[in-house]
TrEMBL record:
Pfam family, one: Usp
Span of domain UspA: 9-148
Cited InterPro entries: Rossmann-like_a/b/a_fold (IPR014729), Universal_stress_UspA (IPR006015), UspA (IPR006016)
Organism, scientific name: Halorubrum sodomense
Phylogenetic lineage: Archaea, Methanobacteriati, Methanobacteriota, Stenosarchaea group, Halobacteria
Designated name of the protein: Nucleotide-binding universal stress protein, UspA family
Family: Belongs to the universal stress protein A family.
Length: 149
């Protein structure tokens, strides 16, 4: 059995409780392997459509995602784990192939992530929780190891 060489752990988040748990796992994994953590805040279809139609101000969405990623930063710093974050639309009104799972995997490739920790949200959860929809896709198609929590 070979040891894993992990430099960056990607954790897609959406602000849910399951995302907080996934962040904790990602930080623990990164700490164990001397790696960094990147939190990717993925916006769901409802939010993207609301932004596109001017119903929701993009700066409000950015403030919400920033509050979540600030909590990631505090936890990563407490564990002495390097961290970064970004935000992505998990849905496109103009490109049919853009969905939460593809956004996670595209980001993993772009960042050259070595490991992905993805939250699995309960099927009976809030339909706005975008990552529950992405988890199965990521598990099926990721080229790097994936931990589903």
């Amino acid at each position: 059995m070979t040891d894993l060489d992990i430099d960056l752990v990607l954790v897609p988040v959406d602000g849910s409780e399951e995302s907080h748990e996934a962040v904790d796992y990602a930080i623990a994994l990164a700490s164990e392997y001397g790696a960094g953590v990147h939190a990717l805040y993925v916006l769901d279809e409802e939010v993207v459509r609301a932004i596109d139609h001017g119903v929701v101000d993009e700066s409000e969405v950015a403030a919400d995602s920033e509050a979540f990623t600030d909590s990631v930063a505090r936890r990563a710093e407490a564990a002495e784990v390097p961290h970064s974050n970004s935000i992505a639309y998990g849905f496109s009104t103009s490109v049919k192939t853009v969905h939460p799972g593809s956004v996670v995997l595209d980001t993993a490739e772009e960042l050259e992530s070595d490991f992905i920790v993805v939250p699995r949200e309960p099927v009976s959860g809030d339909p706005g929780e975008v990552l529950g929809k992405a988890a199965e896709y990521v598990l099926l198609y990721a080229s790097q190891p994936v931990l589903s929590v």
